[in-house]
Each structure stands twice: as C-alpha cells, then as structure tokens.
Design a protein that fits this description.
Strand content of chain A: 35-45%
Radius of gyration of chain A: 24 Å
Helix content of chain A: 10-25%
Distance between the termini of chain B: 36 Å
Order of helices and strands of chain A: EEEHEEEHHHEHEHEEHHEEEEEEEEEEE
Number of domains of chain A: 2
Structural class of chain B: mainly alpha
Shape of chain A: elongated
Oligomer: heterodimer
Number of domains of chain B: 1
Number of strands of chain B: 0
CATH architecture of the largest domain in chain A: 3-Layer(aba) Sandwich
Structural class of chain A: alpha+beta
Largest sheet of chain B: none
CATH topology of the largest domain in chain A: Rossmann fold
CATH class of the largest domain in chain A: Alpha Beta
C-alpha cells in the first residue's frame, strides 16, 4: 500500500494538451475520484499513474518511488477497466489467478489467494464459470478480485460502474467502498458521474481541459466551489454575475447579493456568486426573510417539477431562470405563473473570482 | 399456405441443385475409382485394384510425399510468420506501415502464372534454381498474405483492453501474447493455417514452373500422368486426397465453430 504523488505532469497528443501541469497528492489509503467531462484528461491521468503512457514532463511517484518511466507491468498496480476486460478464454478462477500465475507463485498459494479474493467479492462459488456466463455486476466483482489479488500498491478504476444499470450501480458503490475499507488500499477512480464521486470518495479532483480545477473533500468542493465550472459540474448551482462590492456582488439592475464565503475579490472587479438550489427559500408575496442581510429576489414561477420527496421550481427574473428545490414538507405548493419571493442566507452564497 | 409450401420446395430444390453442382463431379470421380473399367464404362463393377496399383506407382507416391511435406512446412512457416506479422501490424505504429499493409494484398490478385514466371526468373537469378526448396519458398510467399488477412481479421475483434489488463497484472509481452492474445486469435491462426495448407497442396501453376522432373509435387505429377494417358489410379489418389482434406475441414469447423463463434 502506498500513496501516489503526481507533480507537474503534462502530456500532449499532437497539438492537444491532454494534461497541463497537473499536481495531485493521493494520500495512502484514501479513496479519490477524478471527476470531469469527457476530454477533461481524467482518463489520461489515470493511464499515466497506471503506466500505460508516460508523461512528457513532470513526476509520478508511488510510495515515494519515482515511476514515471516504469512500464505498467512493473508498477504493481491493480486496475479495473470500464468493460471489465475479463479474459474470455479463462474461467473466473483463472482470471483472478492470472496476476499470481505470471509471477510464478506456487499452485497451492495461488488457489488459496484466489479463493480468498473471490470470497471477498462474494463470488466464492463461481470460480468455475466462464465470464460470459456471469451478469454485469458479477463480472465487475471478478474484475475487482483479479485486480486486488496481487496485493497492488494502488487500485485504479476507470469508470468501473458505467456499464451497470442504476440499481446495480448503487449496490456496487456500497460494495466497492466496503472492499476498499476492508483492505485499506489507496484507490483512484475516474468517473463523469458527480453523484458517484460525491457519495464514494474521500477526496475529489475536478479536471477540465487537462487542468486540475479544484481538489478537496466532497463537502468542501460542494459548499465552497472556487469556479463557476466546479459549482455547476459538481451539483447544481444558480450563478449570478456582477461587480464585486467587497461583501458580495452588485448585479446589473442594482440588486446586491451578499456572500459570506469564497474568494476575496477587490471591489469593482468582475465576480460571480453561486448558490445551491436547495439553499433558497421560496414564498408567496412579501413574506419577511429571517435575516436582515439575507439575499432576496422577486420572480415568477415558470415551471414546477414534482419529484415526490421534493419539488423543483424554475423562477424567472430579469432574463435569468433560477432553480429552487423545496423539500416536500406538506406545505402549500406554488402554482406556475405565481409571483414569488426568493431568499437565502449569505452563508449559503459563495463568491467566485471571474 | 400453398405458396409457402411451394417456396419451401423451391428452396430445397435450390439447395439440392447447388450441392449437386458442387459435389456431383467429385462423387462420380470417387465412384469411378472403384470401377473396374479404366475407360469409365458402365455397368459399374466394384474393384479396389486401382488403389492397390496406386501403391506400386513410386512416382505418384514420391510426388504425394513431396506435396504433403511441402504443404506441412509451408503451413508451419507461413502461419508462424503471418501471425507474427499480423500481431506486429496490430500492435505497433511505425513508418511505412500503411504502405506495407497496402502492399501485402495485391499478390493475392496477381495471376499465379505471372507470379510463377517471376519466381522462376528470380530463383535462377539468385542461384536457387528449380526444385523442392524453390517450390517451398514459392508456396510460403503465396500463402503468407492469406494468413495475414485471416489472422488480422480475427484481431479486429480483439479488445485491446485485454492486453492492457494482462500487463497491469504484471505480465510481460511474451506472457501477454501467449496467454491472452494468442488464445483469442487461435481460430484465425488455424483458419489461416488451413488456407496456407490448401494454397500449397492445391498449387499447380507455381509448382509446375519450379519443379524438375525428379522433384515434383502431386498436382504436377497428376498433370504429367494425364498427359501421358489417363489411368483410374488418378481417380484413386484424388479420392484419397478429397476424403482426407474434407475430413480435416469438417474437423476444424467442428472444433472452432467457424462463423458461429461467440
């Protein structure tokens, strides 16, 4: 087991900069998500850490040992591929045994280790099956067992749950997390699914156009995004743009929005404010906000989407549509076309430098 | 309902016609190899004399042995070289790869007569001359493109992540190839080998150009024999070849489920 350090790594393919001076420190035993849209460089970064491809510049270390020129087969990593990549010509047990077998381990050792790995992923009885006889979720578990049986220093997962349907995906998220805790292995997984990143990882790195946009624990990124991109890519956010006032921003129509956290932007400079849809209170007419410095806006409900436990309101104001999510508490629901008052606390507002 | 039945009958009739077209000449030849009359005369009179006298025909036996030897060696060499070439073309990017790939296939379309002439001139030029070695080299050259085409086609269905998965588990290039890639392309390698065997064993034109009277292959020997005067021994030897090669084909088809493989 070991931590992974990525320092100033760059990689270009032709004119395209797939990774541009990326540095991340993955601590030993942590569960990391690399999150980003397609083409953001997250898979390229994973492949650099795995050793399928080498960086043009920068340093990669696993357990303190520089590996940026070490080929994948010598890096002692475990990897789970998006489509599982199980060997079709081998049984489940032989698939799992492969890594130990190419190392020349004794037959008895291999058999015992394989059984232990299959038990860990709860497939102890399916060793004799062929991959094509398994369901998607079972294949996923075999791929995981195969990757960890060699006791790698780090576990890399490339969109491991992308091919599963939603219910199974949630099961596997819990399962994956359980196994990761049980063996305590440093795990880095690539995903474009923000919910997956939020629920599973200790830390998230958001990538965009080959650059690391923000890195930190899920709560921190969600509550204090440092860019409009981070705010809107991880979760939903209402973004207001205007001129910084020192304690928030002033919109074009003169309305001020106060923000209690975020970047410090000199007054007069361009800046934005982000607020999460679930932090906004919505009420009819001119109900009083509960704080004097609360942000308030007037608007008109243009659409309501009922989702059982909550409702999402789309509120139009000054050419902007804001999103508000209200828990279903049994309170009166607002009708489309109704004029409403929106209010939220400066504590829920994050100032972002433009 | 009536139309469906007519169509069904037409379909069956068509299949029978097709199979008849393919197999009737072969069946007649096979039957005549057991007929006593050397001049294809009826009524049919059962005999195995022609098979017996076949064993006395040293020239035909020697040619058969040459043919089998050359076909087997051609199969081994061209399957190994061709499979390796396919793997290299699949795995690596190198300068001139496109040109090389494009140049691999035209030889299949060049008439054997012309290839044969070219080889004859070339082998004389470099001092190899005619004979079994020349025939072998010629056959390998003819068979190689077929092997590469068939193995490459199989490789197109290979998922490159499998090699990556194997490497991530610590396998070196050799282990990856032997334990992951080769098992996957095996049906292609076998099919390529069969093609190579067939190209060599059936080969008349190039063999004819490159053989000498003492050192020749079965098709050339059969041609020479027919020119001298037809004997039912030829039917006999042809029947044996057909039975063996069709058996080989069916066996391979059974083991490797061509077309229907999952």
């Amino acid at each position: 087991m070991a931590g992974v350090q990525v320092a100033n790594v760059s990689r270009s393919f032709g004119a395209m900069k797939a990774l541009d001076d990326v540095s991340i420190d993955f601590a030993d035993g942590g569960f990391y998500a690399l999150l980003g849209p397609s083409g953001s460089g997250k898979t390229t970064l994973l492949r650099q850490i795995a050793g399928f491809d080498f960086p043009d510049a920068g340093r990669i270390a696993i357990g303190g040992e520089s590996v940026e020129r070490v080929p994948v087969e010598k890096r002692r990593i475990g990897m789970v591929f998006q489509n599982y990549a199980l060997f079709p010509n081998m049984s489940v047990a032989d698939n799992v045994a492969f890594g130990l077998s190419v190392r020349g381990e004794a037959k008895a050792t291999i058999a015992a280790e394989v059984q232990r790995a299959l038990d860990l992923v709860q497939l102890g009885k399916l060793g004799g099956r062929r991959p094509h006889q398994l369901s998607g979720g079972q294949r996923q578990r075999v791929a995981l067992a195969r990757a960890i049986v060699t006791k790698p220093r780090v576990l890399l997962l490339d969109e491991p749950l992308g091919a599963l349907d939603k219910a199974l995906r949630v099961d596997m998220q819990i399962e994956l997390k359980r196994i990761q805790r049980e063996i305590g292995i440093t795990t880095i997984f690539v995903t474009h699914d923000q919910e997956e990143a939020l629920t599973m990882s200790d830390r998230i790195g958001i990538l965009r156009d080959g650059r690391l946009v923000q890195e930190g624990p899920p709560e921190e990124i969600y509550d204090r995004p440092q860019s409009e991109f981070a705010a809107t890519f991880l979760g939903d956010a209402n973004i207001f743009r205007g001129d910084a006032t020192g304690s928030g921003i002033r919109l074009q129509d003169g309305t001020t929005i106060n923000a209690a956290s975020g970047a410090s932007v000199p007054a007069g400079a361009k800046a934005s404010c982000a607020v999460r849809p679930e932090r906004i209170q919505i009420s009819t007419g001119s109900a009083k906000p509960d704080r004097v410095d609360a942000n308030t806006l007037e608007g008109k409900v243009s659409k309501r989407i009922f989702a059982g436990n909550s409702s999402t309101y789309f509120v139009d104001r000054e050419g902007q549509t804001l999103k508000v999510i209200v828990q279903n508490t049994g309170a009166e629901r607002l009708a489309e076309g109704e004029p409403v008052m929106l209010s939220w606390s400066p504590d829920s507002t994050v100032l972002i430098a433009a | 309902m009536a139309t469906t039945r007519i169509l069904e009958w037409l379909g069956r009739f068509y299949v029978v016609l097709l199979l008849g077209f393919l197999y009737l000449p072969i069946i007649i030849m096979g039957a005549m190899s057991f007929n006593a009359s050397p001049f294809y005369q009826l009524p049919f009179e059962w005999t195995t004399d022609w098979y017996a006298s076949l064993w006395q025909n040293d020239q035909l036996i020697a040619a058969t042995r040459n043919s089998i030897e050359i076909a087997v060696i051609t199969t081994i060499i061209s399957t190994a070289l061709g499979s390796m070439a396919s793997l290299a073309l699949y795995r690596y990017e190198f300068r001139g790869k496109k040109v090389l790939q494009a140049l691999l296939f035209p030889p299949i379309a060049i008439p054997w007569l012309i290839t044969g002439t070219a080889m004859l001139i070339f082998f004389f030029g470099v001092g190899i001359g005619r004979g079994l070695i020349a025939i072998l080299l010629g056959h390998v050259a003819l068979a190689l493109p077929y092997v590469i085409v068939v193995v490459s086609a199989r490789l197109q269905t290979f998922a490159p992540e499998l090699e990556e998965a194997a490497r991530s588990l610590g396998a070196n290039q050799w282990q990856v190839t032997m334990r992951v890639t080769l098992p996957w392309i095996m049906p292609g390698v076998i099919a390529g080998g069969l093609f190579a065997f067939a190209v060599s064993f059936d080969q008349f034109v190039v063999s004819y150009f490159l053989s000498t009277p003492g050192q020749t292959t079965l098709p050339v020997e059969i041609y020479a024999a027919i020119r001298k005067g037809f004997t039912p021994e030829i039917n006999a030897v042809s029947t044996i070849i057909i039975v063996v090669s069709m058996g080989l084909m069916l066996l391979t088809a059974r083991f490797f489920k061509f077309g229907g493989e999952k």
